[in-house]
Amino acid sequence: MWHITSDAQISAGLRYDDWRAYDGGLGRLTTAAPIVPVFNSYASRHEDALSPTISGQVDLDGTLVQLSLAMATRFPTVGELFQGSLNGDGTFNINSFDPMLKPEKSRDANLLVRRDLGPVTLTGSVFYQRVEDTIFQYFGFNQNGFTSSTYKNIDLTRQWGVEAIAETKDWPVQGMNIEANAAWIDSKTLRNRANSAAEGVQFPRIPRWRINANMRYCVTENVQTSLGMRYASRPNTDLFGTQRGDTFGYTSELFALDARVNWDISAHFRLSAGVDNISNNRAWVFHPYPQRTFLLEAGWRL
């Protein structure tokens, strides 16, 4: 970090990754007599990458302006490389996994502006991300109705958006703190040579709108309450924007209210109770989100 002046500074960083995939293979039993194990081995892989980042910020008479730029590489996991699915006869579907998956490479930028207005702090940001070889998980069902998944590379995806954040402390009443944020995101597949029908379509599982809010209030010095809200608009479930629904197998709209109360009985002992998803809203991200959930917790702090 370099402090250019008391109100301006630049920070930079660099990450190095050394990645290997080795001793990978897939085993199965033959379907015809004699029943014997068959094992396919895959060649080892070794790659490395550098991920730089740089950020500069300046305080303009109480308004913080920050610009951050970064490049990053994410290598595939073992599950993404080798987690395949079965055919109807119980054999492995050789097209359901790809031991030669490429790493994701992203270029990111974020412009942030923050202003402290006494009890209220306002923050706005504009963000941009461009990812080459995005690793995407396809969901589906085989001929026997069993769930299957496949990981493949998408040539190029891009997302950008804006976010607004408001935070208050002891406002509008003493002891009450509020945090709220809303984000609009435009995420698209720009290039997919495997099937160009996905190009220009909103990328799956990323909602256009996200809104979150949380209000905390200290009833007494030892009793704190909170009320939270989560919302996400319904995104596409598949790359082509043809699968949209509010049931199992889809990614749906989400709205949930959460409430909680904490009681500090002593300096060491705390009791907590709460309800998540008070309205019992049904939502899915392929599998269902939890519905109304009651919580009761006790904690001892040394």
Q: Separation of termini?
A: 37 Å
How much of the sequence is in beta strands?
over 45%
What does the main sheet amount to? 13 strands, antiparallel
Tell me the number of helical segments per DSSP (H or I, 4 or more residues long): 1
Low-confidence stretches: none
Helix content: under 10%
Question: Structural class per helix/strand content?
Answer: mainly beta
Report the C-alpha radius of gyration, rounded: 25 Å
Report on this structure.
The structure is a single chain. With 302 residues, this protein is mainly beta. Helices cover 2% and strands 60% of the residues. The protein is built from one helix and 17 strands. The strands form three sheets. Strands 1-2-5-6-7-8-9-10-11-12-13-14-17 form a 13-stranded antiparallel sheet. A two-stranded antiparallel sheet has the order 3-4. The radius of gyration is 25 Å and the shape is globular.
